[in-house]
Amino acid sequence: MTESEAERGSAYPPISEQLDDVEAAREEGRRKMDWAAQHMPILEAVREEFVDDQPFEGERIGMAMHVEAKTAMLVETLAEGGAEVAVTGCNPLSTHDDVSAALDAHESITSYAKRGVDDEEYYDAIEAVIAHEPTITVDDGMDLVAAIHEDYPELIDGIVGGAEETTTGVHRLRAMDDDDALEYPVFAVNDTPMKRLFDNVHGTGESSLASIAMTTNLSWAGKNVVVAGFGYCGKGVAKKAAGQNANVIVTEVEPRRALEAHMEGYEVMPMDEAAEVGDVFLTTTGNRDVIVEEHFEKMDDGVLLANAGHFDIEIDLDALEDLAVDRYEARDGVEAYEMEDGRRLNVIAEGRLVNLAAPISLGHPVEVMDQSFGIQAVCVREMLENGDEYEPGVHEVPDELDREIAEIKLEAEGVEYDSLTDTQREYMDSWDHGT
Amino acid sequence: MTESEAERGSAYPPISEQLDDVEAAREEGRRKMDWAAQHMPILEAVREEFVDDQPFEGERIGMAMHVEAKTAMLVETLAEGGAEVAVTGCNPLSTHDDVSAALDAHESITSYAKRGVDDEEYYDAIEAVIAHEPTITVDDGMDLVAAIHEDYPELIDGIVGGAEETTTGVHRLRAMDDDDALEYPVFAVNDTPMKRLFDNVHGTGESSLASIAMTTNLSWAGKNVVVAGFGYCGKGVAKKAAGQNANVIVTEVEPRRALEAHMEGYEVMPMDEAAEVGDVFLTTTGNRDVIVEEHFEKMDDGVLLANAGHFDIEIDLDALEDLAVDRYEARDGVEAYEMEDGRRLNVIAEGRLVNLAAPISLGHPVEVMDQSFGIQAVCVREMLENGDEYEPGVHEVPDELDREIAEIKLEAEGVEYDSLTDTQREYMDSWDHGT
Amino acid sequence: MTESEAERGSAYPPISEQLDDVEAAREEGRRKMDWAAQHMPILEAVREEFVDDQPFEGERIGMAMHVEAKTAMLVETLAEGGAEVAVTGCNPLSTHDDVSAALDAHESITSYAKRGVDDEEYYDAIEAVIAHEPTITVDDGMDLVAAIHEDYPELIDGIVGGAEETTTGVHRLRAMDDDDALEYPVFAVNDTPMKRLFDNVHGTGESSLASIAMTTNLSWAGKNVVVAGFGYCGKGVAKKAAGQNANVIVTEVEPRRALEAHMEGYEVMPMDEAAEVGDVFLTTTGNRDVIVEEHFEKMDDGVLLANAGHFDIEIDLDALEDLAVDRYEARDGVEAYEMEDGRRLNVIAEGRLVNLAAPISLGHPVEVMDQSFGIQAVCVREMLENGDEYEPGVHEVPDELDREIAEIKLEAEGVEYDSLTDTQREYMDSWDHGT
Amino acid sequence: MTESEAERGSAYPPISEQLDDVEAAREEGRRKMDWAAQHMPILEAVREEFVDDQPFEGERIGMAMHVEAKTAMLVETLAEGGAEVAVTGCNPLSTHDDVSAALDAHESITSYAKRGVDDEEYYDAIEAVIAHEPTITVDDGMDLVAAIHEDYPELIDGIVGGAEETTTGVHRLRAMDDDDALEYPVFAVNDTPMKRLFDNVHGTGESSLASIAMTTNLSWAGKNVVVAGFGYCGKGVAKKAAGQNANVIVTEVEPRRALEAHMEGYEVMPMDEAAEVGDVFLTTTGNRDVIVEEHFEKMDDGVLLANAGHFDIEIDLDALEDLAVDRYEARDGVEAYEMEDGRRLNVIAEGRLVNLAAPISLGHPVEVMDQSFGIQAVCVREMLENGDEYEPGVHEVPDELDREIAEIKLEAEGVEYDSLTDTQREYMDSWDHGT
């Protein structure tokens, strides 16, 4: 530990020092990770390569991620590639303590992630990670990038680069970049075709709906499901809900997305109208105040409200609290807000990311995260190998890395596909053919 | 208690005498039931009618059902209609002890259902119900009907009739009826359009898939999902899996169902071939030995095996056990059988009904059971009101009862529809119109 | 020709005597039939059997069907099985004269079907068929059965039985049967699982939508498509329209069907409300006056109105005519009715069965009719072989015939499926297995 | 006419001079255009603006497009905006002579498009358009751009810019641009979100399938439909085919697209394997030699082959011709190639773009082209208004134009949507918010 570590958050202890029965937790966490490993062929292939090549030797990787079994496989993969890794959570409710403990047991990994920490502890843990003086940052919501730029600018010189997982994080990084405030290169992992299509569409879609179904024991068939936002996440939620025989209603602010939803056959209307007919409301906008007081006032008794976006600000719970005459836990993970007229509006997982924060939730499916983390892994490798080529700012993932991951996955699935013949390649490159 | 009760299973105690903290259990059970009540408008409407009319005054109703929050609403509805009700489970793994305790707290209800009982206790509990000398039986798998006919034929004279919930139960009752061995009338609730379409298709489909997703943290997108059987349950599972972007493969033994699946766009093949390509296998046949040794031998490493039919005999676990060199819990509710060549076949919930027996499972969605139990409730009323009209044997639910439930549901959902005009009704009844 | 033939409609000439260039017509008709034959493996298998067995030797079969290439294969199959066949159309607009001519060229077939005949000619042609004194009738809309019972009761004694193809025809036959007015046995071919599911669902669904798309050059994506009736035809139209990204709205009069549509995720509302939001209206009820004056008054400019039911009475064109200030052909097969306020309501194919009567329409897809006519063919064989067993009245198609056709089809498609083992068959037949 | 016109293709006559009954053709063409106009609200709104503003006064627009009713509305819109327009076809089989004649009747439009011209006439017509010395080119397949660059480079100085409609055209333009060979700016209309999603996905998908259904009278249900290429067109064809209950098989050369198709639940395999199981083959790659000799050898009797890409080189008809022992017209628009072993492979529309070249085909649905042509129209306006800002080369359509069209469409459809509040806009622009 360096001196500066002592000054920073090093007072905050790793998870292993915070649990009563750390051995039992490690064993349970390891069992969860083994299951994930069984279904993450991409990361397995990448790990094998890393173990051989040790690309991260001498590097320190700081991570703020949802710490559960799947992410743990990325953490381990990076550690086995030679890095010292320090990791904490990126959401107080998404950490699995047992997985965190299993990670912390690895000789090259220190994990500070703990479920249910308060705001102060949350940021202490982030500072504890920063105290390791990372040379690479891996973020899910840009907490590390933000904290380093705001409070530890002296570390920036030593940082090769970073990777950011989420839509929201990338959005904010771009805004930061536009202000010339981003001082090291960060890969916008979220923006790759692989990440967007599989993680956002299939991952968010399937896991959010399954979490809600298992948390509420309610059915989708015949329900009016209002999906706020028709970005990749919204498309996934809408498609999967329709695939469970829900009647999907979409709200949007961007006319082309609104039109796209309309042309898919969904009903499109303002939230003001949707509030009157919806049975379930799912926000996926990445924006704030999507469902607010005027909407709560119009909703039916018994509606469900959940967020599949990022932060817990899409549903205005303060306004709901003000409107309510009573509030109680109707079911694990379901808070009922009772209105003066007797209507009960049921908020799931406190409006936090439902597929991570609901009591019955597991985050994204294993296979989907395998793809997403596969890209993360090769992005970190790329940053180290060719970091000089990247100016400070947000960078798209190089196309060949994204393609590499797809090839690994298809091979693992046993899916074969065609190759261009020379004649075809030549044809695609030429422009001098007539009708 | 009558003398005969003393002789029979009356030694077996109600749940309240078996739990340590019965008060806490009752409170938790009641909270679960309140949530269900909020989403069961049909049963609520029926209950209001029953409370006013007391149709079951003086009757004793014996029930063997999956005892959880939704079923509990049926039990209460019957009790509030004036009956003394005795209830036990119809599957050792599907009982929620807290709900059982909450039911047992009702002055007109005795509940013997307890999770995890062994075979002897299971049948003792059934006998304890029979010891109440029911005048009506309500079954989910015909355990009560079978036990009464086999061991307590002297009670038959006092029994007005019964109702049976499941496909499998009705199938066996019909076989019994064909042998002239069924000595009182039983409504085949399973066979109503309402029950089949909503419970089997939507209920089994959605809840089985959500249970598996939440038990395994795996995704459906791109998976080869093999659905054994294309009856109503199989159709539901296939439709909902396709709606999650799975590639669905159907196995069948009946050519018209096979053809129907083929015309829906699913792949149809024998299990022998499906075993080679499937990622997930779901049995819904109601038959035995659907997946057996020769199939296990061909499966890939990491496949999932689950049952959404009725009994745990669709997947031949004895054969799998014999083939395996190791067997361990890979995850809560997932038993991995390791083959000699290293392949791991993962069996979910011990091959029992997956949407009830998996660790993360809640049975059918609330709304679906509301429909199903609404029919049960009016069937029991019908049996008492017009029991003389029904000969011993299996009876279809009278069409007007089924229709009554649909009308109640549509009204509760606020869905309006058209009525025939007199001219239209006349036209439909006539045959003398030309081109 | 017998004397009685001379007295009846025998004055009406076969198609060959009505066409200018009968040779060209026959050649074109034969080419159409050859294409159909290439895609009708069921009928081909049945025909091979009939050619060998000559089951209809000495019989006279009277038919009133949509005379186009596919039906022609059934007509030929029956003729090649040894029958003398006389055939006419069952709808003035659905006949293909060239196919009619090609049939009439067969030495055992006389075809009277001609497109565009007026009412008098239409019934003359039916009488011409009856003049052949059929021993078997094959109907598509019960025109032959009705005409024989009303006007030629003396023929009934000589009739072994009949087969009826359509929902509407069967409905009317049942009404006739209920009045004890049906004096020979008729198979309700429409009611078989094979016919209903494949013909009504897939056939009507696909062909109606493709006809409308090709007649109007409009898209389904994003359209509000109102489907009146949620029977088998309505389900098919709704499913296929949703599969083209339409937003489907269902109107119904039967609460269980309304609920079923609601649970599928479709919007359900009365026609009164649907009229205000629909872009396309498709009637499939088999009833009359489904879309009437009050609905026309609420519709948007540019809506499409079409009928996929049976008769042209589902849309009240008289009322529409009365409301309109102008009426003109907006496009081949599209009649625009202009309202006083400038709105144009576009009626396709004069409200007749759209997949047969639209200018770009071909009736049901070949493969679907192959199944349907395969059943017709074996039903006619059954009526002759076991006619004594059938009392006058409507009869369901024996299950084994329906199953036989499914087996033939699966074999032709190369689709394999499982068989029950003895143990499984025994299990399904038993009722004495416990949990 | 200038002198240079006289030297160029001016010898080639407009359509009006080539038809026998030009008045009848014009009337019929106008009726088709009126129907299109009724369903093209975007172009109607744009036209109203152009009529007022006359943005194209003094300009000469040269167009090579599929000349049918919808395109005609774009041609008229540009003409009514003040331009002199000369137009010809971009495919010998896609022209509707009556529409061409109706256009030619407009005082500011000269149309050379004629169906069924041979190669020489085709290029003569293109030269005739070029002879008008266009200041703007609008292409569908870059025929005009190519011809001008190759043969009339002297015109380039006078050209403000162009617009290109298709994927294939844009692909070739980019290749040309990469070689620095493109000497004026061209908008890649194909690449806009609006064009890609609606035209390629919905338009190509729906119209190709409906054309094939109506040309063959075959069904999609239960068919193995092989879609070659999973770009936007392929996605549309796959989605719509699955929506008609086909079993969709995708072939691809790009691993991410292959993986995307796999994750959607489609089967992915090389064409070599697909050839053995497919019932229908649809090419959408924009490349050549997608289905070749080795594939033909493996196909089943009766398969259908069609192209929904661009040029007629995706299916290698020369190789098929060589393999065949016979070849005949099985049906209008269907050429059967008979193999030595008796198998018949049926090629639709000579392997040309099926939704334009099949006998029953209408090109894209009206509404879809309304969107596509709306963008074309505002792109041409943009090129004139701000042409100086665009360097020679391929340019993306400015985002605000694309968005403008979406807004017009939503308003026309009566679809309302939300707007960002100030707080939300500020939030989206900021990056300094914590968890």
TrEMBL record, chains A, B, C, D:
Chief location: cytoplasm
Keywords, ordered alphabetically: Cytoplasm, Hydrolase, NAD, One-carbon metabolism
Membrane-traversing stretches: none
EC number: 3.13.2.1
UniProt key word NAD: yes
SMART domains for the chain: AdoHcyase, AdoHcyase_NAD
Name of the protein in its database record: Adenosylhomocysteinase
Organism name: Natronobacterium haloterrestre (Halobiforma haloterrestris)
Catalytic activities: S-adenosyl-L-homocysteine + H2O = L-homocysteine + adenosine
Family: Belongs to the adenosylhomocysteinase family.
